[in-house]
Amino acid sequence: MEEWAGLGQMEDYLSVLEYLLWVFTPLAIVFVLPFLIVIFLYLSILFLHVYKRKNQLREAYCNNLWDGARKTLATLWDGHGAIWHGYEIHGMEKIPDKGPALIVYYHGAIPIDYYYFLANVILQKGRTCHSVADHFLFKVPGFKLLLEVFSVIHGPQEECVRALRNGHLLGISPGGVREALFSDETYPLLWGQRKGFAQVAIDSQVPVIPMFTQNVREGFRSLGTLRFFRWVYEKFRLPVAPIYGGFPVKFQTFLGDPIPYDPNLNATDLAEKVQQAVQSLIDQHQQIPGNIMRALFERFHIKHKRH
């Protein structure tokens, strides 16, 4: 019966398992416990980021529930950016304290840098920047409340113009999902012939502020350069290209000089001017091609690109 049931072999397997457990348990304790302590330390730092702003948060919650919620989430995102990416933002003074402006940015595989930027706008400027997102994001279950609270719209030109005429900031990435999935470590701008954002700026008579984040494609990368995923997107508009990463590389967001409203510029000319401004930020601040290891080392030593 024991032979038929294989109990003899089972005992051998259990003996081997017991031996492996005996060998590797000390190793697990030696390596896992310090790792857990590091996580606890980072969580403590995140808590301190929130605690540092406790008075601001208390005041925000007293004024409006969603203002308090926005500031709390902004504080958490700001803490995450500081801890995981050593996030810095240069040129925040170019974002107006009052009045409208259109922010145009390069789209990473995951635009986590844009989330950090939104958090900084809330915390430093006390403003909520409206954002344009792709339609598919509105179909993700559970996202509706988040998109509403942070004033995310799906991008009809009329709605964008209305937001700007009402005095809000608005963020747009002309490359959108295509740039997120199919750009690579050489940082090409995949805007095609898109100029709707420029027409929005003209109709609203607002300045355009270019923005780019150094190493954003080293934090997360996409396999969209593989032909199959590009075919699926072009055929069915399904953004199914796998994204990998989450590497703790150095992120620095650079805001360029505002491009003022000029009644003599049409949408085509303005779109080209804005694209050149974003490309100029890439040329100034990003080493091409991007390199993950180099971006990791920049957490400890920043070597600024020569202008």
Automatic annotation (TrEMBL):
Which residue range or ranges hold the Phospholipid/glycerol acyltransferase domain?
88-211
GO molecular function terms listed in the Swiss-Prot or TrEMBL record: acyltransferase activity
Ordered alphabetically, the record's keywords are: Membrane, Transmembrane, Transmembrane helix
User: One Pfam family for this entry, by name?
Assistant: Acyltransferase
- Chain ranges passing through the membrane: 20-48
Q: Name one GO cellular component term.
A: membrane
Q: Does the keyword Nuclease apply?
A: no
Query: What is the protein's given name?
Result: Phospholipid/glycerol acyltransferase domain-containing protein
- Give the source species: Mola mola
